[in-house]
Design goal:
This protein is 85% helix and 0% strand. It is built from three helices and no strands. α1 crosses α2. The longest helix is centred in the middle third of the chain and has 28 residues. It is elongated and about 45 Å long.
């Protein structure tokens, strides 16, 4: 459940950033709620598909989630 919750929160955060900070700020400053909601939904679907494709691609290369966690620990947590 924690992984699902984290993924959901990440998708909502990315969708909010794109729809408000990019779309409304630069592309369509007069966008109303309905347009922003549509852009947000499109971003959620796109981000989900791209995340899934990345996961499948990494797995096909032999880079499992364990490897990704190990690499992150070495890169981020190295002293």
């Amino acid at each position: 459940m924690a992984v699902t919750s984290t993924g959901s929160a990440e998708q909502i955060a990315v969708a909010s950033l794109v729809s408000y900070d990019v779309y409304r700020q630069y592309i369509n400053p007069k966008a109303e709620g309905r347009q922003i909601m549509l852009v947000s939904r499109i971003v959620v679907v796109t981000y989900g598909v791209l995340s899934g494709a990345l996961a499948v691609g990494l797995l096909a290369l032999g880079l499992s989630l364990g490897w990704v966690y190990l690499a992150m620990g070495v890169i981020i947590g190295s002293a």
